[in-house]
Amino acid sequence: MAYRNLEISNRGAVRTIVVNRPDKLNALNRDTLNELGLVFAQAAQDDAVRVVVLTGAGEKAFVAGADIAEMNGYTPVQAQGFSRAGQRLMTSIERLGKPVIARVQGFALGGGMELAMACHLRVASEKAKFGQPEINLGLIPGFGGTQRLLRLAGRGAALELCLTGAPINAQRAYELGIVTRVVAPEALDEAVNTLADQLAAAAPLAAAGILDAVLQGGETAIDQGLEFETQGFALAFSTGDMREGTTAFLEKRKPQFTGR
Ligand code: COA
């Protein structure tokens, strides 16, 4: 299926989704949000996909935010719908059940930073810039930024970034725990591909259990979170992959995981 604002490709079990509106620095309009919702739903259902890489077209921007031109005419009710649609998309990415890597080569601002934060891992070029500049538009983040930034980097960083609206570079984002790896621009693709291949070879049901325990279990009180972990741990013993992983260790060979 062809998309107006996205490009999709596959490399083995790695699906790459490119937000493709480079003339608008890949800004997220309603149409792009809808298309992203569809492709992520497909990636969730397709067992052949083990890892998703999300990025933006061109060198300049990952995604420079929600589409300001489109928002300019919104009524409060339309804005509510837009925020809910954005939040639904971000939550669906976070709960995909398979690892999603954001490949951030340039601007990740506003909705772009929110999109990157909904991914599980963020690999950034040294040239990337992150920020929540909504306040400069008389707005507040609306795609989950206040909540995910708070959880990723703490209250101080969330308030500083959202209240000043000032962008930070990739190194600062790394220091704040927002980005998981920073590499030279020319090393970005190799770093993303190596990480994606590593995750694609991992046991998918174990990966799903880890995502669930950290993301959902982590939102509860510690006793419930620990119980969440125990249930996930026990469930792993129902999988062939767990037998294969432990047997391969004992037989001193590399495991072959099948996702069963
Ligand atoms: N929404 C809609 N269009 C956007 C956009 C956004 N969030 N970000 C960039 N664009 C468009 C610009 O309007 C411009 O379109 P035009 O050529 O039709 O005028 C095009 O993308 C290129 O952007 P431009 O501003 O000319 O590039 P720049 O290099 O001078 O500046 C930025 C780059 C990222 C600093 C600047 O585009 C910017 O501040 N964007 C908005 C960031 C933002 O506030 N995001 C949060 C939104 S909630």
UniProtKB/TrEMBL annotation:
Keywords: Lyase
E.C. numbers: 4.2.1.17
Naturally occurring in which organism (per UniProt): Rhodanobacter soli
InterPro entries in alphabetical order: ClpP/crotonase-like_dom_sf, Enoyl-CoA_hyd/isom_CS, Enoyl-CoA_hydra/iso, Enoyl-CoA_hydra_C
Pfam families (UniProt xref): ECH_1 (PF00378)
Family: Belongs to the enoyl-CoA hydratase/isomerase family.
Lineage of the species this protein comes from: Bacteria, Pseudomonadati, Pseudomonadota, Gammaproteobacteria, Lysobacterales
Gene3D superfamilies listed in its UniProt record: 2-enoyl-CoA Hydratase, Chain A, domain 1 (3.90.226.10), Lyase 2-enoyl-coa Hydratase, Chain A, domain 2 (1.10.12.10)
Protein name, per record: Enoyl-CoA hydratase
Enzyme class: lyase
GO molecular function term, any single one: enoyl-CoA hydratase activity
